[in-house]
Amino acid sequence: MSYKQFVIDFLCSDYYKDKSVFEDYMHPKVEISWNSSHGFSKFNYDDFFEIVTGMGKTFTKITAEISHAIAEDTQVAVRFNYDVETLEHPESLPLAHFMSIWEIEDEKIKNIYLMSHAADENTENIVSYLDI
Asked: pTM of the predicted model, to two decimals?
């Protein structure tokens, strides 16, 4: 499997609900550097797993809509957004837009660089994230 497909499969998986799926993809020494509308955050494996676990409790479904995925050697760049469903709101809602770089080492995701901002309801923006 290509590294590009590996990252896409992770983003489209149930990693937020199933710890074994998370473990299949994440390197034990993963580092996440995240620039969001709230500022910069850095996470390790345990920090990231805690965030992921929270997502699994908050959302009944998370769907990645990937518009771009480009790979070179062990690095993969992906532009995507997440749509989410909750018990209170079972219709899919846009959550956030992401631009990301993923680095693979030892067949696991070792480094993640994310830039994100909250999603908006602008139709042209949403359409620009249609799946590849």
From this structure: 0.89
